[in-house]
Specification:
Largest sheet: 7 strands, mixed
CATH superfamily of the largest domain: FAD/NAD(P)-binding domain
Structural class: alpha/beta
CATH architecture of the largest domain: 3-Layer(bba) Sandwich
Helix content: 25-40%
Shape: globular
CATH class of the largest domain: Alpha Beta
Distance between the termini: 37 Å
Radius of gyration: 23 Å
Number of domains: 3
Number of helices: 17
CATH topology of the largest domain: FAD/NAD(P)-binding domain
């Protein structure tokens, strides 16, 4: 085989998207995947005989419509259905809040009529900000570079254009506050009643090891509002066949355009010759050469493990020492003999298709975070439960169901030298007991379970400290600073090396955006000779 144009490390969804776009451009592409299946953290697997579920990523909204259209994912079998209700929040006093199209304001009014009246204004304000930022998702951020005035001056024009768009949308002040304030402070200004603040504020702690009152958590909330399902903005849904149906469709698209995908092919090292990335070494010692090497792995793994240490620029090594990663997530997949029966809303219904939030207030979420910091895990955890088999009967035997539990907060590293190997199942018991307190009899309905600690999420899926975003979505790790200043355009500080995973702009979630954007950079570079000019290779980050 002649030399490859591009080599992608990792067949997670962003790697597959990148490979498909490169193939569309007529480039010769090969994808190397460590696991025996494609998909990364976006997979569907059988975890108990007859029961399949989305093992890690578990719900869909953020997947970019452009990616769906360009790669013709629906023609490759992808079908996404929306939840019949969006969120269900049971409360300790036996009441509940059930949100969704046409019902949210009426549900809020059960608790506070003033909040119900404010809700549309809140949604409009968030939508204005999201619409501007949504337009930035499929573009490289301004590539600001300290110490290089002439280059940075041109990039500042791009940054000014972003500010102008926010100003015209009359949302500049609100957007600035979102990047600097907490979700709790913001929601406290808008609303009075706990239930609506809890439903909205949950998005501020999803995958975020923080309190909803932690600075910057408002942006994490906003990050989760970018999406849509079948043209409906802000809606969450389910991929029929589980999240793996998304990556299977992407793999078909990539192969259709000539990409070769090799599974069970772990990469040991990025080959750097003459200061340039020229290929990889596989674990078995096989060398694979390419004009461009694109890493769909987290930045810590790339610069600490895959790139030879003598080839890592000092600025990149220093940046990785400060890189914050760790989401505090404990993930469970359950096989159920029957649907849960919630005390607040007994029986079957649309609420069981929703994201079921077991965290009745922002103060509860704050206490969960503080308990985790003090003790290593929250004794009263935050749980979102999704039961995808209510929308997709292909996942479980007739009459049975599968459930996803996204549980927080747990520390990536437990105190006092306690290992996750020793504590995993007792924490899993706590999570099931927590659900059982809201839905009596739930524990007895569990046929089997799969429990994934932060350590498991790192070992299996390459999520550093279990971080679903590959790095915290804090102000110093966003936009032009993701993963480092001067290298936010997917071109890493080693010529010929690119980053296409969630550690690049715009961050985590099943979006396909980093893969799409990195592909554009590679295409441009390979058409005019690979990579960043050598005189920029050591630029500071």
């Amino acid at each position: 085989m002649s030399e490859l144009d591009a080599l992608v490390i990792g067949a997670g969804h962003n790697g597959l998207v990148c490979a498909a776009y490169l193939g569309l451009a007529g480039l010769r592409v090969r994808v190397l995947e460590r696991r025996a299946i494609v998909g990364g953290a976006c997979v569907t697997e059988e975890f108990h005989p007859g029961f399949r579920n989305s093992t890690a990523a578990y719900t869909v909204s953020l997947l970019q419509p452009k990616v769906i259209r360009d790669l013709k994912l629906q023609a490759h079998g992808l079908r996404i259905v929306e939840r019949r209700a969006q969120n269900f929040l049971p409360l300790p006093d036996g009441r509940y809040l059930l949100t969704g199209d046409g019902r949210t304001e009426g549900e809020i009014a059960k608790f506070n009529t003033r909040d119900a009246a404010r809700y549309l204004a809140y949604q409009a304000e968030m939508s204005r900000i999201a619409s501007v930022l949504r337009g930035l998702v499929l573009k490289a951020p301004p590539n600001l570079l300290l110490g290089n005035f002439s280059r940075t001056l041109g990039e500042l024009g791009k940054l000014a254009a972003v500010g102008t768009r926010l100003w015209r949308a009359e949302s500049f002040k609100s957007a600035f506050n979102l990047f600097s304030t907490s979700a709790g402070e913001m929601l406290d200004r808008w609303f009075e009643s706990d239930p609506i603040k809890a439903v909205l504020g949950f998005d501020a702690v999803v995958g975020n090891l923080a309190s909803p009152y932690g600075a910057g958590s408002a942006y994490v909330l906003l990050h989760h509002t970018f999406g849509e399902v079948n043209g409906k903005q802000g809606v969450w849904g389910h991929a029929i066949g589980g999240m793996g149906a998304i990556t299977q469709a992407m793999a078909k698209a990539a192969r259709e355009h000539g990409a070769r995908i090799d599974v069970a092919s772990p990469v040991r090292e990025v080959i750097v010759e003459g200061g340039r990335a020229t290929g990889v070494l596989l674990e078995d010692g096989t060398a694979v050469k390419a004009r461009a090497v694109i890493a769909n792995v987290n930045p810590l793994h790339l610069f600490r493990d895959l790139v030879p240490q003598q080839a890592v620029p000092a600025a990149a090594a220093a940046r990785m020492k400060k890189w914050k990663a760790g989401s505090g997530t404990f993930r469970m997949n359950l096989a159920l003999s029957r649907l849960p029966d919630f005390s607040a809303l007994p029986g079957a219904g649309d609420h069981l298709t929703a994201g079921i939030i077991l965290a009745p207030s922002l103060s509860y979420m704050d206490a969960a975070y503080r308990d985790c910091v003090s003790n290593g895990f929250s004794r009263k955890p935050i749980i979102e439960m999704v039961i995808p088999s209510t929308l997709d009967d292909s996942l479980a035997p007739p009459g049975a169901h599968v459930a996803s539990l996204f549980c927080q907060h747990v520390a990536p590293h437990l105190p006092d030298g306690v290992s996750w190997e020793d504590r995993r199942e007792s924490i899993a018991d706590l999570m099931i007991d927590t659900v059982d307190a809201w839905a009596p009899g739930f524990k007895a309905s569990v046929i089997a379970r799969q429990s994934l600690s932060p350590l498991d999420l790192e070992r299996i899926f390459g999520l550093p400290n279990g971080d679903i975003f590959h790095g915290a979505l804090t102000l110093d790790q966003l936009f032009s600073a993701r993963p480092m200043l001067g290298f936010a355009d997917y071109r890493m500080p080693i010529p010929g090396l690119y980053l296409c995973g969630a550690g690049a702009h715009p961050g985590g979630g099943v979006t396909g955006a980093p893969g799409h954007n990195a592909a554009q950079a590679v295409i441009v570079d390979l058409r005019r000779a690979v990579g960043r000019p050598s005189h920029l290779a050591g630029d500071s980050g």
